[in-house]
Amino acid sequence: IEMEQAYYTQFKQKNNDLRAFRHDFNSHVFILQNLAQNEQWEQIKTYLQKLCEIYINNYYISTGNLIADAIINNFYNSLDKNILFKTSGCFSSECFVENFDICTILSNLINNASEALSGKNVHGTKEIYIDIESSVNRISILMKNTSANYEEAKTDNIQTTKNDKKNHGFGLANIRKTARKYNGFIKTAYKNYMFYTYVVLNKPIKTDT
User: Fold this and answer.
1) From the CA atom positions of the chain, what is the Rg in Å?
2) What letter does residue 204 receive in the DSSP assignment?
């Protein structure tokens, strides 16, 4: 509920800021044209950088599901600028997964990816990628993130790197438990410093009683 409220407030503010930016867009173009005519290249560079910053601050991610949007946007807004974050796909308007379960899966996927990026021996560009495929009867979520090296045989039994192991390390177990509720599964894999987590959920079949 707190995430939903925070998301609504954030969405409303960003929407207002975006409308204000669009209102002034023609004026921005006029200024850039004048700077270009006078060959003020450094001023153009500074002006464009400012416009890009405004765009980034007004950017929000929409997946078609309020809970998913709240979780993903909250995470996106807390990311370091050096982390590349991408999403694709969306949830069906007839989503059969309960909000609580969407929260369990996405929050644990994101927390695991965030923990991996903060670990030692992370090579290359830090990246997180979420792909959502959804139909009336099936939902699949792929999380791909930069990671330290893992042995392929041990990807199904990954232990937390946090010191408080008693209260951490439940991420994959919680996702697996939720997937079973929907007759689904979770698969993990590692290749070339990228860790993959694939979750599939199936719509429960109603039986006559």
Assistant:
1) 21
2) P
Q: Is the separation of the CB atoms in 140 and 165 below 8 Å?
A: no
Tokens 């929409």 belong to residue: 62
Q: Is 39 helix (H, G, I), strand (E, B) or coil?
A: coil
Helix (H, G, I), strand (E, B) or coil at 149: coil
Average pLDDT, the chain: 80
Q: Give CA–CA dist 192/148, Å, rounded.
A: 9
Give 104's contacts (C-beta < 8 A, 6+ positions apart). Answer: 174, 175, 178
Measured CA to CA, the distance from residue 18 to residue 67 in angstroms comes to 22
Minimal CA–CA distance to 117: which of 172, 193, 197, 174? 193
Angle at 86 between CA 50 and CA 115, to 5 degrees: 105
Model pTM score = 0.68
